[in-house]
Design goal:
There is one protein chain. The protein is mainly alpha-helical. It has eight helices and four strands, in the order H-H-E-E-H-H-H-H-H-E-E-H. The strands form two sheets. The chain has a two-stranded antiparallel ribbon with strand order 1-2. The chain has a two-stranded antiparallel sheet with strand order 3-4. The longest helix is centred in the middle third of the chain and has 18 residues. The radius of gyration is 17 Å and the shape is globular.
Amino acid sequence: CMMMAFASCDRRRYRQLISDYAAWLCGTQLQNGMWSYDGQGRGDNSNTQFAVLGLKAAIDSGVALPPVVLRRIDAHFRHSQLRDGGWSYTQGGQATGSMTTAGLSALYITGAMLAEPRKDCGQHVQDTSIERGLEWISKNWSVQGNPGRGGQTWHYYYLYGIERVGVLSALRRLGGHDWFREGAEFLLGSQQPNG
């Protein structure tokens, strides 16, 4: 989050600091492409998502990353996708909206960073992992709660994930829904009197 904040404030001014944080993240990545939440090598998709978003801020700031770091992230999210097209917090769990948006965001980021020049430039290349994730979002669409978890558990975290997928994919609609409008209307409608 600090890397994203510094990059949004002044990428040039904070480039060295962003670079230092990126080096630390690259050095703490687990071999399976994840980041640990407990210092004992057990990773989860939530911490991994924030590491990926931080690394994207570094790349956007002109910091070069070892390609192996991005390849591990990409491989992790492709191999951890559930049969239904979603992702869970940890291996073997139930798909949730917040973790499915984390998986999709990571694949959009690694896909853009690992893309190699192609002879068929301008032609659409189908990514089945992304398409399956988008189908999960479409089938389970909600701005009222975090799909797969029920109720309000991690609800705003999920809405942030929807925003990330919408921006990274450059899709105006997710599952036929105007994600920005629906999300904004929900947020404005749920704001408390104290702001």
